[in-house]
Each structure stands twice: as structure tokens, then as C-alpha cells.
Amino acid sequence: MKYLFIPAGVIFLIAPMAVFAASECVVRDRGGNGAIMPYQNVKFPAVLPSSFDPNVPDGTVIYDAAGIGDDYFAVVQCKGEYVGNITYAGQGAFDGRTDTYATPVAGVGYRITHSASLGWWPKSENYQGPGRILPGAINYRVQLVKTGPITAAGVLSGEIGTIQVLDHGMGPITVARVSFNGGLPIRPTVPSCTIQRKKLDIGLGEVSLVQLERSGGSDYKPFSIDLSCSGGSTGATTRMFITLTDSTNPGNRGNRLTLSSKGSTAAKGVAVEIRRADDSVVSFGPDSSVTGNPNQWFVGQFGNTSTSIPLRARYVTTSSPLAAGQANAAATFTMSYQ
Known about the structure:
Blueprint: H1 2-14, E1 25-28, E2 36-37, E3 40-45, E4 61-66, E5 74-78, E6 84-90, E7 94-95, E8 100-102, E9 108-113, E10 123-127, E11 131-134, E12 141-146, E13 154-156, E14 159-165, E15 173-181, E16 184-186, E17 192-195, H2 209-215, E18 221-230, E19 238-246, E20 270-276, E21 297-302, E22 306-317, E23 331-337
Parallel strand pairs: 3-15
Antiparallel strand pairs: 1-2, 1-5, 4-12, 5-11, 6-10, 6-14, 7-8, 8-9, 9-12, 13-16, 14-15, 17-18, 18-22, 19-21, 19-23, 20-22
């Protein structure tokens, strides 16, 4: 197949040059003889054969796929005599130990090549010719590699790499884009956790205004969120995080839980405070499990076991004068495994 590239290249070089409009470079499809396209679009199948043991050694390949498509190459044409400098790169932090780029799933990296003989990206070259051949989609390859501890599942999607020409126009010109064809699920056999009781009723009891005025708060009432984790490979763990959300005022990012009691029978000048086991006061965040959710905190790393998140709550004063009455409040909690 490679010997056919030589006469095709000669024919291409003596053919009339493409009309360069807005861009200084163009990409031609179907072996350089097809229509001009914005860029070569290479996609990889979003199918991971099965779940995998997260305890496999670092460097283990957990996904290996060729690009979707055919073997027809594309050709990059640029104004002037030469194409010049070209870069081949993925996205995110690069780990030279495994030639991988970081993914949103901790402990999993990816690497790309457009030619097995040239090795993994990143690559760069100064191409001293008027037309640079880009191989067909099936010649591209992507691998997912274990790079460290894997404690949660996730999904990879979107663009993961580009080929860019640097010496034409006002900035880099992207001549190829590499992406997953949908969302690629990453399914390590880490423990999954279930909540033992999804609804907790915490009675803080009756508190006198005198006590609140003197001490600024009532006695603490302990409670816990209990979970049972199972289904992971032996020795596998998951990193557990939690966010509490103010049900009455979901936009609350402070550390005072808003009273839900309203009207003339509601208490005035008080709120509810929740503290963690380390005595830090809980601040509230959005009802979301995304990594880095505001006021989300790390609970711990657990295997196939049961665990509890100890908490305690009390009334605290927020303003004067105080008024006796009902003082109900509600919060939700959202677990996140990362």
C-alpha cells in the first residue's frame, strides 16, 4: 500500500493548487483528490469490552482501539513552498512514564498515535514539502492505561487530540481532530455503596430562650449517615465525598441551615448548625455529585465494608431579639465517589 502513495503524491504535487480563502492551509479528503474539508475527523469507538480489576499493575492497557473509518489518507496543503512545523498532541497533563495524558478518571490516562512506527504523541516535525499526508482513520490508535490508583468509575467523551500546522496564518491551524464517538464508560470493579437510611429525623428537642441567650446555642444532638459498600475486587477501594444542601434555601453557601418554619408560630433569631466529627462546621453546597462541588468534603477511602459519617446538630442564635416558636429545618445529602 505504501508504494501506491508515491505516484499518487507525484500526481498531487503537479496538480493545480487549491484555492486558499480564509485559511492559509486546507485539508483534502480521499487520498488528496477529494473535497476540501475543515479538518480530518478521527473518531474512536466508545465501547469498553467489560469491567476490569482496578488492582492491575500500573502501565496495564485497559482499552485499545483503532479509529473508525477507512484507509484513505488525507493531504494538508498550505500556501508557500512548505507545510512547515506540525504538532501532534493530546489534551491535559502529560505523564512521560507511560506517554499518557490525564483523563477525568483518576488513575486512567490515554495515549494516541497516528502511526505505530512513529510512537505515541506528543510529536512534532518540520515538514519541508508542499503536501503532508495524514493517514486514514484506521491507522490512528488510542489506548487507555492505568497510571495510578483507580477508585471510581467515569465516562470519557469529546475531543482528546489535534494535529496543528503552526507556520501559516495568525495562529495554529487545526488540520485533524481526534475524539471518542460518544461517551466511553470506564468501569473498574470498585465498591459501590448504598445508604442504609435515606431519611433521617433528628429531634433537637425543646430549648429555652434563656439557654440560647446565655450560651448562643443548644446542646448537640449526634446522628450519622450509614452506608454499606460492596461489589469491589479484593483490595479495591473507593474515595467517598459528601455535600449537604439547604432544602429551604438551596443557594445557601453558608454554615447556618435555614428554618423551614414560617408564619407567626415560627421561632425567630435561630438556625441549625451541623458539625463534622473533626468539630468543623458544615457549609452547604449545591445538590450535585460533581467533583469539586462547592463545600463538598472528603469522607474517606473504603473497601467492601460498612461505614458511618458521624455528625451532630444544634440550634444557634443568629440575631436578636429571639422569639419562641417552631424551629424546623431540612437538608439533603449527596454522595460522590471519585
